[in-house]
Write a structure and sequence with these properties.
The chain has two domains: about 5-70, Ribosomal Protein L25, Chain P (Beta Barrel), CATH 2.40.240; about 80-230, SPOUT methyltransferase, trefoil knot domain (Alpha/beta knot). About 30% of the residues lie in helices and about 25% in strands. The chain has helices at about 25-30, 90-100, 120-135, 150-155, 195-200, 220-230; strands at about 5-10, 20, 40-45, 50-60, 65-70, 80-85, 105-110, 145, 150, 165, 175, 180-185, 205-210. Strand 6, helix 2 (about 90-100) and strand 7 form a beta-alpha-beta unit. The structure holds S-adenosyl-L-homocysteine (SAH). S-adenosyl-L-homocysteine binds next to helix 6.
């Protein structure tokens, strides 16, 4: 039995309806994994749970699916945000992919005084998040916000959401599992600047945390911090 392809479709899903896939999905099904009309697919849109269906029509650049049954109803997913200082392109891509796998619901890239880049290709990052969500069996795709300045982000922060700020060589307690809405903040390769560290300490929702005695690369800090924050509360 070939594995059933799992695809994200940004349109309403319900029993008995026919929905069109994208040109990229048609190409993938037709030319890459060589599926045919009648073969099974599994689709999700981030709102209506997960649906089983079959390929109704398939050409090189066009595909439609006929939905049959709901395999999983929609569920409230983890309310976990990641705020991270923008990294080099490949490393940012990695953080988006892994944060999606680790259940992050909102990703906020930020610029800091030691961040070297302020630009991202939002379309590519969205595609990476969709592919990771398809692969890891999530029912939603994280929201990726446009890059914003760190201090501006803090000034607009919802005060009831704790922001666990990973700060190396500080006298901060270890990061611990946290159930409920929260966020992780990770700085740039060069670390936060002294004025940024001062600013972070002034916001009451900021909780400085340590990720251990070693200095981690920023991408490692993102993944380790997310995993540790959510290391309880799932089965
Ligand atoms: N260049 C800096 C290190 C920056 S590491 C220096 O040598 O001091 C990049 C980011 O990862 C930091 O801003 C911090 O958010 C996070 N980080 C890395 N290691 C950490 C640790 N042991 N505890 C907490 N945060 C850490």
């Amino acid at each position: 039995m070939p594995t059933i392809p799992r695809l994200f479709l940004d349109q309403p899903l319900s029993a008995g309806t026919d929905v069109a896939g994208s040109e990229g999905q048609a190409h993938y099904l037709h030319a890459v994994i060589r599926r045919a009309v009648g073969d099974e697919v599994c689709v999700f849109n981030g709102r209506d749970g997960e649906w089983l269906g079959t390929i109704a029509t398939l050409r090189r650049d066009r595909v439609t699916f006929r939905l049959t049954t709901q395999a999983r109803p929609p569920v409230a997913e983890d309310d976990l945000w990641l705020v991270f200082a923008l990294l080099k392109r490949d490393t940012t891509d990695l953080v988006i992919q892994k944060a999606t796998e680790l259940g992050v619901s909102v990703i906020q890239p930020v610029t800091t005084s030691r961040t070297n880049t302020a630009r991202v290709n939002e379309t590519r990052l969205a595609a990476i998040a969709i592919e990771a969500a398809e692969q890891c069996e999530r029912l939603t795709v994280p929201t990726i916000r446009p890059p914003a300045d760190l201090i501006t982000t803090l000034l607009h922060w919802p005060p009831d959401r704790p922001l666990f700020a990973a700060i190396e060589r500080a006298d901060a307690g270890p990061i611990r599992p946290h159930i409920g809405p929260c966020a992780l903040l990770v700085g740039p390769e060069g670390g936060f600047s002294p004025p940024e560290l001062d600013a972070l300490r002034r916001f009451p929702f900021v909780v400085p945390v340590s990720l251990g005695p070693r200095i981690l690369r920023a991408e490692t800090a993102c993944l380790a911090g997310l995993a540790l924050l959510r290391s309880s509360g799932f089965s």
